[in-house]
Amino acid sequence: MSGFISRIGKRIKKYIVWLILLPVVLGAFGFFFAKGTTQQSSYTAAVTLTLGKYDDGVYNNMAEVTSLLKSDAFLNEALSDVKEEERQDVKTRLILTNQSDTQLQLSFTDADKGRALAVVKQVSDTFLKQDKALFTKRQQVIESRLAALEDESVSNDSKVDKERFLYELESTKLGMKQAKIVDPAQVLDEGNKGMSAKKRALLGLVIGFSISLMFVVLPEVFKES
C-alpha cells in the first residue's frame, strides 16, 4: 500500500504543472464561455383577481369576463400606449386561468421582465377601474332607492311592505362587492436562464480536478491489478 501511495506521489510531482493547469484552464473556459453565450431569459408575470358581486351580467360572470379581457375594445383601452401589432401579440399570449368560480389569474410571459409586469398590471388595472365605475353606479342606485323609500309616506297597511323592501335593499347593498386583487402582479418564474459564469467556472474546476485525479490514480490502479 505504501508503494502505491509513493508512486502516486511521484506522479503528482512529475505532472504537477499539468495537474494544476487543467482545472484552471477548464474553469477559465467555463467562465468566459458563459460570458459570451448568455441565454435570453423569459419572465412570467401574473396577477389574480376576484370578481365583484353586484348583479352585473358581464363583470360578475367569469365566462363573460374572460371574453371581455381578450376583446379588442378592452385591450385598446388597457394598452392604449402600445402599437396595434403589440396589442395583438398580447391578445395572443395573455393567459387567463379560472382558479374558481370567482377568481381569475392573468399571466403573460415575455423576454422583457418589465413588459411582462406592465401588461398584467395594465390589463388588471383597467378591469378594476371599469368594475369600480359599474359598482359605484349600482351602489348609488340602491342608495337612491333606499332614501326615496325611507322618505315615502305610506298607509298603515303598507308599512309591512315598506319595511320588507327596505330590508331587501339594505341586504342587497351589504352583499355587494367590487372586484379586487387577491395576489398582486409579480414575476412567477424565469426560464431559459442557463448557468451563470461563476457556476460554469466552478463546474470547469471540478471537472478539471476530476480528470487530473484520474490521470494520477488510474494508471497505478491498473498496475496494481
How far apart the termini lie comes to 13 Å
Structural class: alpha+beta
Radius of gyration: 34 Å
| Morphology | rod-shaped
Order of helices and strands: HHEHHHEEHHEH
The total count of strands amounts to: 4
Beta-strand residue fraction: 5-15%
Biggest sheet layout: 4 strands, antiparallel
Poorly predicted runs are: none
The average pLDDT score comes to: 85
Q: State the share of residues found in helices, binned by percent.
A: 55-70%
Helical segment count: 8
Order the strands across the largest sheet as they lie in space: 2-3-1-4
What would a concise description of this structure say?
With 225 residues, the protein is of the alpha+beta class. It is built from eight helices and four strands.
